[in-house]
Amino acid sequence: MVPPVLYWKNNRLYILDQRVLPGAVMFLECTTAEDVAVAIESLAVRGAPAIGIAAAFGVAMASRDGRKAAFDASKRLVRTRPTAVNLFWALRRMEERMTSLPDDGLFENLIAEAGLILADDLECNRAMGCAGAELLPPACTVITHCNAGALATGGHGTALGVIRSARETGKDVKVFSCETRPVLQGARLTVWELLEDGFDVTLICDNMAGSLMKKGGIDAVIVGADRIAANGDTANKIGTYPLAVLARHHGIPFYVAAPLSTIDPGLSSGRDIPIEERKAEEVKRLPGGGMLPDDYTVWNPAFDVTDGDLISAIITEKGVLRPPYGPAISALFPKED
Fold first, then answer.
1. pLDDT tens readout for residues 92-126
2. Cis upstream peptide for 324 (omega within 30°)
3. What average pLDDT does range 65-89 have in this prediction?
4. Backbone angles phi and psi of 149, in degrees to 5
5. Where on the phi/psi map is residue 147: left (φ > 0), alpha (ψ -120 to 50), or beta?
6. In what order do the strands lie in the sheet with 200-204?
7. CB atoms inside a 10 Å sphere around CB 259
8. Which residue has the higher pLDDT, 336 or 335?
9. Which of 39, 57, 157, 325 might form a disulfide with 161, Cβ 3.0–4.6 angstroms?
10. Is the pLDDT of residue 337 over 70?
11. How confident is the model at residue 288 (pLDDT cuts 50, 70, 90)?
12. b vs e for 102-137, b when ≥16 Cβ sit within 10 Å of the residue's Cβ?
């Protein structure tokens, strides 16, 4: 069974250290907002919903030193990852809650609010899973990329939540997981998570997906998201966009599963989504140990953007959105007068 991605106990936040998976199951003990910020930046905790949940607890912990300390913690945490909009959504929710609370009981109330964000995420993942499961045939094989499962969320998962829910309804789902270069979230996390839950899962290198689709027998591609613009353009882990192009060429539906908190209606298109670039060392690290030479120039974006017109459906806790996504997203986020 997959352990929780984080939990609160004895006034401490325990975060599953995903950097050491699948070799070991270890938890980081976080007592300060800075501990949480470092865990996010170092990818000990990752996945857009999980990042937001962890950040919420970070703000709550800082409030033990007062309201100003909590707001300062929020400013620190907002700088940890620029692409995942759930981070900003969760911090904004915590800040709004802070403004309505008295000083007395501030810490206890903010911990409770962070706990609600965690519980709400699990509930919405369940709802998302039920909605998405209906899109899959009774016996199917799907491709997924990166990790959009229980390890990336409050539990159950987004893309993997759809797969889990499909199996719960009696469907036979087989999974191919792309390794997800350069940090290998698919190989290290998705395959491990699915094996822990007894799924039939096969690991492939990212550059094998096209050949696999050409062979036939792939019924869908299902991925998560870090930010979705108002027109449906979607930022997800680097390598998602070519999967969508390949799926379109081979006539395979391409689904995105994400909570409404991942949608950023203030961005008109994917061109406006900030894309995080990470250190060259992630790419230079050699499989057998050692590093490529220092004078190698490296471009290492953490995400790419998939055009909305390549996405067959966006699965949310409020149901399945179909193209054109602009009107569907506008209906979910009506503008205030």
1. 999 999 999 998 999 999 999 999 999 999 999 99
2. yes
3. 95
4. -120, -155
5. beta
6. 200-204, 172-178, 139-144, 220-223, 254-257, 313-316, 319-321
7. 28
8. 335
9. 157
10. no
11. confident
12. eeeebbebbbebbbebbebbbebbbbbbbbbbebbe
State which H helix or E strand residue 172 sits in. Answer: strand 172-178
User: What does the mean pLDDT of the chain come to?
Assistant: 96
Give the up-direction half-sphere exposure of residue 335: CA atoms within 13 A in the CB hemisphere.
6
Measure the CA–CA gap between 160 and 164, rounded to whole angstroms. 6
Q: Which of 214, 204, 192, 197 lies closest to 144 in space, CA to CA?
A: 204
Tens-digit pLDDT profile for residues 196-206: 999 999 999 99
DSSP string, 1-30: -PPPSEEEETTEEEEE-TTSTTT---EEEE
Annotated catalytic residue 103: no
Which region holds residue 270: left if phi is over 0, alpha if psi is between -120 and 50, else beta? Answer: alpha
Residue 336 pLDDT = 62
Q: Report the alpha-carbon distance of residue 46 to residue 323 in Å, rounded.
A: 29
Q: Specify the residue for token string 């290998």.
A: 184
Residue 314 tokens read as 């966006």
Cα 280 to Cα 283: distance, rounded to the nearest angstrom: 6
With cut-offs at 50, 70 and 90, classify the pLDDT of residue 287. confident
Of 226, 233, 264, 304, which one is the catalytic site residue? 226
**Mean pLDDT of the region 251-261:** 97
Chain-centroid distance of CA 2 in Å reads 16
Asked if residues 142 and 312 have their Cβ atoms less than 8 Å apart, the reply is no
Provide the greatest CA pair distance for the chain: 64
φ, ψ of residue 333 to 5 degrees: the values are: -130, 70
Are 315 and 258 spatial neighbours (Cβ–Cβ below 8 Å)?
A: yes
pTM: 0.95
